[in-house]
Amino acid sequence: MARPSSPLRLPPGLRLDGALVVRGDARVACAVKGSLRVEGRLEIAPGAVVDGEVASHSLHIEPGATVRARLAIGKVPSPAKVAPLRRFLPAAFFPPALK
Amino acid sequence: MAMPDKQLVACPHCSATQQEPVGVVSTVCRACSGHFSLEEKEGAGPRTKKTKTKPSRLVRCTQCENQQKVYEDALSAVCTACGAHLEIGSYTLEGVVRQRVQTEGDITFAAGSRYVGPEARGRTVTVAGRVQARVRAAVELVFAKKGEITGPAAAPTIRVAPGAEAVGGHIAAGLLKVEGGLKAKEVYGRTRIEVVKGGHLDAETLVARELSVAPGGVLQGRLDTTAAPAEGPTSAEAEK
Q1: Do B211 and A75 touch (CB under 8 A)?
Q2: Are strands B85-87 and B76-78 parallel, antiparallel or unpaired?
Q3: pLDDT digits over B158-197, tens only?
Q4: Which of A59, A84, A93, B156 could form a disulfide with B213 if both were Cys (CB 3.0 to 4.6 A apart)?
Q5: Is residue B49 a contact partner of residue B42, using CB atoms and an 8 Å limit?
Q6: Which residues of chain B are within 8 Å of residue A61 when distances are taken between CB atoms?
Q7: Number of domains in chain A
């Protein structure tokens, strides 16, 4: 599956509850509770609140982000283990490759 | 009895001037406590006129925190403020060591060494052996090879050298840079935790305001950014 060229951006104001899978890179600035799995680079921006489990290929948590999570970085579990969260998100938040 | 004539001499270390009796061969600078010779060599001016000086460094008194300049290769000094004896030499420790290791110089625990005793304290501390004690470095703590620290370890910068398979207990750093492998119980990065390509950090608990893992790096553990104070801990907190 081709990777999206631009990262998935989750802007402030969103609140996600459940399991989210991202095929490429992602920048999270919203509230996420549950499981967040990013197969590329994950950036957690100031103001974001992440509570649960985070897995990604690489990671940058910026000062001002709130993260209380179990991290597994560099070893991303297989997609079958994590159910997607698309139903929680408007389609506009997904890059074309994920639609 | 007439007083001997005085001469004005300049310290080659800090350039401070002071009066000394004519004929003395050496003296101690009243400003920086550096020792210097006043003997004149044939065909040359007094040594105080030399422009090239021995490399020096700043050391801090463990009793009163006073800072003073000493020769880079000096092994000990006396505090100019409180008179305390200062251990400032650098040491490489091998085998089993039980005596106190506290210096303003550098300490290297060689591979295969084992240290059991009170807090080990130095400027830059490199651990390639096993240290069963609290460790504190004034500048940098380096985990190398199979370095292991079972007690709390604190330093402004803690670095895990490439290729290391290190083990730590409670680690408190301003900046933690992981280039090799480190398994620890609790890791506290006041400023930042950074895992670079080839680095592997496995900790039960991680506390940091900023964290980055580069592609090719591995990190596992439970992170809580809310446990890190906004301005970072004081040195006393880092010593916990």
Answers
A1: no
A2: antiparallel
A3: 999 999 999 999 999 999 999 999 999 999 999 999 999 9
A4: A59
A5: no
A6: 208, 210-212, 223, 225
A7: 1
Residue A61 lies in a domain: yes
- CB contacts of A69 in chain B (<8 Å) are 222-223
Any domain includes A27 = yes
What does the buried/exposed string (b/e) look like for A17-34 if buried means 16 or more CB atoms within 10 Å of the residue's CB?
Answer: ebbbbbbbbbbbbbbbeb
The values of phi and psi at residue B129, to 5°, are -110, -155
Closest partner residue to A71 (CB to CB) among B216, B223, B226 is B223
Q: Cα(B189)–Cα(B43) distance, rounded to whole angstroms?
A: 58
Q: Tell me whether residue A69 is in a domain.
A: yes
Across the interface, do A74 and B206 touch by the CB < 8 Å criterion? no
Q: In this structure, is residue A96 part of a structural domain?
A: no
Confirm whether pTM is higher than 0.80. Answer: no
> Which residues in chain A touch residue B220, judged by CB atoms under 8 angstroms apart?
71-73, 75
Identity of the residue numbered B145: K
Predicted pLDDT of residue B75: 85
H helical segments located in chain B: 235-238
Identity of the residue in A41, A61, A68 whose CB atom sits nearest the CB atom of B211: A61
Cβ pair A41:B216 closer than 8 A: no
Residue A47's domain comprises 8-77
